[in-house]
Every structure is written in structure tokens, then in C-alpha cells.
Amino acid sequence: MPTTLTAFADVTTSDSALRRFLHGLPGVDAVGLEARAASLGTRSIKTTAKAYAIDLAISMIDLTTLEGADTPGKVRSLAAKAVHPDPLDRKTPMTAAVCVYPDMVATAKAALNGADVKVASVATAFPAGRAALPVKLADTRDAVAAGADEIDMVIDRGAFLAGRYLETYELIKAVKEACVRPDGTAARLKVIFETGELSTYDNIRRASWIGMLAGADFIKTSTGKVGVNATPANTLLMLEAVRDFKAQTGIQIGVKPAGGIRTTKDAIKFLVLVNETAGEDWLTNEWFRFGASSLLNDLLMQRQKLSTGRYSGPDYVTVD
Predict the structure, then answer these.
(1) Catalytic residue list
(2) What pLDDT, on the 0 to 100 scale, is given for residue 1?
(3) Are 167 and 159 in contact (CB under 8 A)?
(4) Average model confidence (pLDDT) for the chain?
(5) At residue 319, does pLDDT exceed 80?
(6) Averaged over 243-252, what is the pLDDT?
(7) Longest distance between any two alpha carbons in the chain, whole Å
């Protein structure tokens, strides 16, 4: 099996070549996609398997605060929660990451104090992505210099929807290069498509392939700032894309649904999608994440219910 993108070298040599490739991808059967996503969502997960799934979901969360009112105190509190989600049960897994704006990266890094929790930062003029390329790259470099382990960038949906596919590809490549530190190590790059604005499943498939060809480490559904964010169907489609990409290149790429996933039941549905579509190789926070804040609270409540047989009062978990 090849382990490089050599087979796709000619695809990105010109806008016309990339367009031919993307429009040559199989069309998405919307009815079939949604039916499969709905069917997988009916799987029943109970007892031991449910306990395992809850801990796995906790370990996959990018615990997120992306508000204009964010303060250093709020970020420090979020970091503390990421390390010890349930202070009364130190066996509770840590979350995968804390996700903040670039100006809060240093605060989050200091608050984590070496804990095995990544610091992710949004960049490239999040959430709209409406800025000149030098501004987007400076945004990225500032976050990396402040200590970000991961960068969540947004594509220019306007350019993509106008059919400027090579421009979208080159933006991702440039941001990928900006993630490299002076010592040669690099922050991992998550590419946000804002699937709710892409209009069609065919566009989501095309955006997924652009991101993967450009070197994304993760492809991500949404910013969480629009009306339609992560759904089982659009996440299933992206899981199919990374599965097919690995089959053709040997390169594994992660998936991150974000926005609107609030309950344990929802999270488990997504884990079933991962297992049944991409496979067990993706059932780790190295390759699958949830972009969420309130989801963690429900997971903790359900975890406590499984261990004690009863639900705790409303003050058992903090309100984010």
C-alpha cells in the first residue's frame, strides 16, 4: 500500500486539474447517507459497553470556550476541569484538549502545568475566515508561538463556494506550514469546513478531499457558530472520506464533529458511526474528537449514575 500522496501529485497542479478530480468523485446519495446514519444511531449500548463508551467520549473532548467574554479566570477554570473533570473521582479520564482563542493559549498552557491535555487554538480569523492571507498566517504563528499544540483553522467558504478550489487548497497548505515551529516540530492542524454553509453533501465530500490533500491532520465539521453544525450524516460522510483516503494513501486523518453534540446519547451515536464506518483505528483521541463544552457535564452525570445507581443533584458538575 502506498504511504504518500504521489498518486495524487497531478491533481493539485492547477485549478482545472483539481476541479476535474473533485467533480469526478462519486456523487453522494443523500437519502442513503441519512438513512445509514439514522440506522446506526439506533444501536443500543448498555452496561459495561456504555461505561467504556462514556470514558472514551470524555477522553475525546476538546473542551471549548470561544466567546468574546472569555477571561483568564474562565480559561484557568476550564483547564482545571479538563485535567480533573470530576474532582470527586480521580479515575475519570482527562479530556483531550482545551480549545481557546489565540490570546488565551499561554494562559491555558500555564494552567495545565504539564498535564497530558493539549492546547488547541482557533486561528485564521475564526469563525468567518474573512481576512487577508498574511493576517491568517500571523494569527496561526502567534498561537503556535504561544504554545498551541493544535490549530483549528477555518477555510474561506466564499472561495470554496465560488469554485476557487485551488485557492482553498493553497490556504490550507500555507497554514500547515505556519504550524511548524523553529525546532521543526509542528502543531497538528484541524481544518474546519463549516458544513452548515456548504449547502450539499457533494460539497462536504469535495472539501474533505481538499483538506486531506493539503495536509490536514483532522477534518472538522463546524465552528459551532452557525445554525447547522455537526450532524450524524455529515460526520458519516467525512468518516467515509478519511477511510477511503487511508485505503488509497496509507495516511490516516482524524475527524472532529463540533457544535450541537450535548448529550451522552448523542456522543455514543457518533462513536458507533466511527466504529462502523472508519473502524477501531479511529476510536482514540489521536484520531477522533468532539468539539464541545456542555457535553462533558452530561457525560459526567451519566458516568456517576452508572457507578452509584442514581443521578446527582444539579450542582454535581460545574456550569460552563
Answers:
(1) 152, 220, 256
(2) 45
(3) yes
(4) 94
(5) no
(6) 96
(7) 60
